[in-house]
Amino acid sequence: MTTTMHGPRRRALLAAGAGLVATAPAVRAQGFPERPITLLVPFATGGYNDRLARAMAPFLQKHIGQPVTVMNRPGGATVLGNTFFLQQPDDGYMMMVHSAAPFIPVSIITRNARYRVEDFFMINLPSRDATVLACAADKPIRTVEEVVASLRRDPRSLSVGIQPASADLVNFALFCQAHGIERSRVRVVTYDGGGPARNAIAGGVVDVGLVGAEGFLPIKERIRPLLIFSDEKSTDYPDAPILTEHARVAGFAPQFVEGSQRGFVVASRFVQAQPERYRILLQAVERATKDPDCIATLGGQQLATTWYGPEASNRAYRATSALMERYAELLRGN
Amino acid sequence: MIDTAAFAGAVAMLAGSLDAWVWVVPGLLIGLVFGALPGISVSMAMALVLPATLYMEFLPAIIFLTSVYTGAGFGGSIPAVLINIPGTSSAVATTFDGYPMARQGRHNEALGAALFASCIGVLISYLVLLLLVQPMAEVVLRIGPYEMAAIGIWGMVLLGSIGGASVAKGLFAAGLGILFGTVGMNTAGYMRGDMGIPWLLDGIPTIPAMVGLLAASQLFALVNAKFIVEAESERRISLRRILAGGAMVLRSPLTLLRGSAIGVFVGAVPGIGSSIANLLSYGEAKRSAADPSAFGKGDVRGVIAAESANSSSEGGSMATMLALGIPGGGATAILLAAFAMHNVIGGPRFMEQSRDVVYAIILSNFAQAAILVVVGTIFVYGASTIVRLPLRYLIPSVLVVSTMGAFAIEGSIAGPITLFVFAVLGWLLSRYGFPVAAVVVGLLLGRLIETEMLRAWQLAGGDPWYVLNYPWAVAIVALMLVSLALSVRRDIRRRRAVRDAASPG
Amino acid sequence: MERAQAPRQPAWAELAVVTALAAGVLAYLIEARGVSLDPQNLLLLQPTAWLVLGLWVVIAAGCLMRRADPAAPRESAGEVLRVLTMVAAFGLFIAGLERVGYDVAICVFMLAGLLIGGERHPAALLLFPPIFTLAVVHGFRLLIPYPFPTGLL
C-alpha cells in the first residue's frame, strides 16, 4: 500500500488529516503521521502477536489520529518478516508486533539471517512468557524430582518434546547440565512449533516436554506443570514450582532464559534518523497501552498490557540476545 | 450424548436471531469465490474476513466464518474440475478424475457430483461432531508420530504410482516429489537444499508448486487446442446434467461414506487436515474398486471420494478445536482467534459452559450444507461458462490469475517464481510420460512422512524395534501390506488374463 | 505376438530431461550430506535419493533402447515451437513483474498470449489486455493484504 501511494492521494490525506488538528496538536504540527500506520506481524493470523496487534489497533488509532492496519508476513521463523521490515523506508509508517526475544537473535543464529540484533529497537514488550516443563495429566509423573531421578538413572528413560532452536531448548540444556544429566543421550523429540509440541505433551505422545506457558492455557486441565523456568510464581499456575526454588533445594545456581517477549518493535535506524517521529510513536503506544479501555479489552482476551517502556524492554531484549549468543552452538544443533 | 436442554436452547437461539442467518449466504459466496481462485486457500479467505467479524456479535461472527469455511471447501473443486487447478491444496485429488471428465464434456456431471458430495460430506461430518465430539478428540490427541507416519506412508503407497504408464517413471516422479517435500529446514533443524534463498527455508511453497505442476503445465500443452472440451455439442451448461451428477453421488453411497469417514478422522488430527484426507480417500476408493484402472480417466467415483473427504474434514477439525481448543490447521486457528477477539476462550470449558452455542454452531452448519446445494448450483452454473471460452483467451488469463494467486500467498515474488519453475517442470515431465500427479502427492506427503518418521526415530532413540510398542501403527502398516499384496495379485492375474486373451496359443 | 522389430531410435530429449533431474537429485544429496551425516538429516532424504538415482539407470536404459513406434502421434515442429514461445513468454512475464510493475507485465503478457494463441482480430488485441489487466489489478488489490508494485495503475 505504501508503494502505490501517489501525489494526489497523499495530498488528499493531508487535507483530511488537517481536520484532526484539534485532537493531536503536537502530532499535526509536524505533519506526522499523515497516512495510515501498518502493524507488521511476522507470524500467521491467529497467534499471540497477531491477536495483540489486532486488539491494540483501535486504541493506537485513537491515540495517533490515523487508521492502524495489521499485515501478516509469516515464514522462515520470522526471517522473512524481519527482512521485509528492514527494507521499508525509515518513515515510521510501519511498526512490528513481534516475539522479538528470542526470535530475532535465534533467527540470526540458526537461519543465517543477514540483519543484526542491534538493527531492532524495542518500544515496549508487554508480554513475557516462561518455559514450562510439563507432562500429560494422566501420566504417572508427579514432580520434577521424579523427572530428574529418572533421567539421571537412565537418560533414555523419558522422551522429551521440545522445539529445536528455542529458548525452551536452552533451558532444557541448562537444566540437564545443572543436574548432571547426559543430554545427548536423552530421547529428544523435536517439534517445529509451540502448538505441535504442546499437543504432543497434552496427548501423552511424549513423556514430558518444554513449551511456553501461554500455549498451555487453553488446555490447562490436560497437563501437569512440573517446573516453571522463572524467578517468580506464575499467576496462571500458582501451584507449579519455580526454577529458583527448585535450584535452591537441589543446590545449584539457577540459570535460565526467558521465554517469548512480545510487543512493539521499530528499526534502530528509524530511531536515529527520525527522533521526532519516533517520539510520536512512542507516546502513542504508551498512551494506548495505559488506556483503561485498552487494559480492560485486552485483559478479557488474555493479552498483556504492562508498560515497561523502551529502556527496560531493550535491556531485556539485549540480555536475552546475549544469552542466546552464548548458547549459539547448542541452538545450531551441533 | 446430546444435552436436550442445550439443544433446545440452540434451536431457540438460531430461530430468534436474524443476524445469525443473514451472513450465511454472503459467507458461502465469499468462500466459493476465494476457494475457486487458485492459490487463495480456505485459511486466507477466513483471515481476510476476520477483521469484519470483530464488529459482529459472537454467534453471527462464528457462523459467518464457518460459512466461508464451508464455501471455500467446495469452491476449490470448481477450477480443479474445469482447468485442472486445485483451487486449494485440499482439491488435488479432485483434479485426478474431475478434469478428465471435463475434457470429455462431462463437466456438468463432475461439478454436480463434487457439489453434492461436498454438501453431504459437511452434513455427515457435523453429525459425527454432534454425537462423538468428545471421544473423537480424545483419540485424536493421542495419535503420535508412529501412527501419523503410517498414515502418510499409506497415502504414498496408495497414490505413489498414480496415473503412470510405467512403474519406473511413476516411482521416479513420486521420489522426486518426496525430495521436493524435504527441501528446507526439517523438524530437527537441519537446513538443506535451500540454495541460500531465504524463502526456501520453509520448504518449497506448496500451493504455487502444485498449481504449476498440475495446471500451468497442462495449459502449455493445450496451446495448440481450441477449447477445453473438444466437441462443440458438449460445451453446453445444463442444470439437468449438474443434478444428474448429484444423483450419481447418491448411487455411490459406499464411496461417499468412506470418504466422509476418512475426512472426519484425518481432518480431526492436528497438522494433517483436508489436503491429506482427500488424497487418502481417493487412494482408498481406487484401491477398493473392482476396476481401479477406470480411475484417473474420468471416473465420477474419484470425484466423489475426493470431495466428500475434503469437505468432511471441516467437521473433524472443528471437533478438535471445540473439544480441545487446539487448531488442527489454518482455518480453525482463525476461528480460535475470532473466539479470542470476542473474549471467548475455545476449549473444554467453552464446551461445558456454552453447550447451547456449540449446538447452535453445529446446527447452523447443517443449514449451511443445505444452502450450499442451492448457492453452489448457481455458482457452478456461472463458473462453467469457462468451458465455452476459447483457449487462446483462457490460457493467458488463467496463467495471470494463477500468478497473482501465487503472489497472494506470501505477498512476495517467491510464489510466482515457484509457479513458473514447476510449470516448466510439469510440462516436461508430462510430455515424456511421467505422472505429474505423483510428484504432487510426493510433495504433499513427503514433508509429513519425513517429519513423523523423524519423530518416531527420535522417540525410539534409534531403536527400530521400538515400533512394536505402537500396535496401531503396526496394524495400519500390516493392513497396508495385506491390501497391497492382494491388489498386486489381482493385477498379475488381470495382466495374465489380458495377455492370454491377446495371444491365443 | 511380437511385433516386427522397428528400428532403434533413442529418445534423446527424454534422456536429457531425466538425466538433468537425476543430476539435480545427486547435487541435492551431496549438498544434504555436506550439511550433516546425522540420520536426523538423511533419514528419508538419502534412501529416496538413491531410489531416484537407481530408477534413472532403468529409465535412461529404456530411452536408449527405445524403438520407433510408427503408431505414435507426431506433433509438428510448429506446434512445439508455439508451446515453447508460450513458456518463454510466461517466463519473461514472471521476470518482469517486479521490474516493470504487475500491471504493465500483465498487459504485455496478455497481448503476447493472445498472439501466440492465434488471435488476430485487432479490436480484441487492443481491448482485451488492458480491460483484463484493470480488472485483475483492482480485484487483487481488494482481495490481498500485500501491496504489489505497479507501473501505471
Automatic annotation (TrEMBL), chain A:
InterPro entries: BUG, Bug_dom1. Pfam families: TctC. Keywords: Receptor, Signal. The keyword Signal applies. The keyword Transmembrane does not apply. Residues 1-29 form the signal peptide. Belongs to the UPF0065 (bug) family. This is Tripartite-type tricarboxylate transporter receptor subunit TctC. It comes from Neoroseomonas alkaliterrae.
Automatic annotation (TrEMBL), chain B:
The keyword Iron does not apply. Signal peptide: none annotated. InterPro entries: DUF112_TM (IPR002823). Residues 22-440 form the DUF112 domain. The keyword Lyase does not apply. Keywords: Membrane, Transmembrane, Transmembrane helix. The chain crosses the membrane at residues 20-40, 111-133, 139-159, 171-189, 209-229, 250-272, 321-345, 357-381, 393-425, 432-449, 469-488. This is Putative tricarboxylic transport membrane protein. It comes from Neoroseomonas alkaliterrae. The lineage of its organism: Bacteria, Pseudomonadati, Pseudomonadota, Alphaproteobacteria, Acetobacterales.
Automatic annotation (TrEMBL), chain C:
Keywords: Membrane, Transmembrane, Transmembrane helix. The chain crosses the membrane at residues 12-30, 42-64, 76-94, 100-117, 124-144. This is Tripartite tricarboxylate transporter TctB family protein.
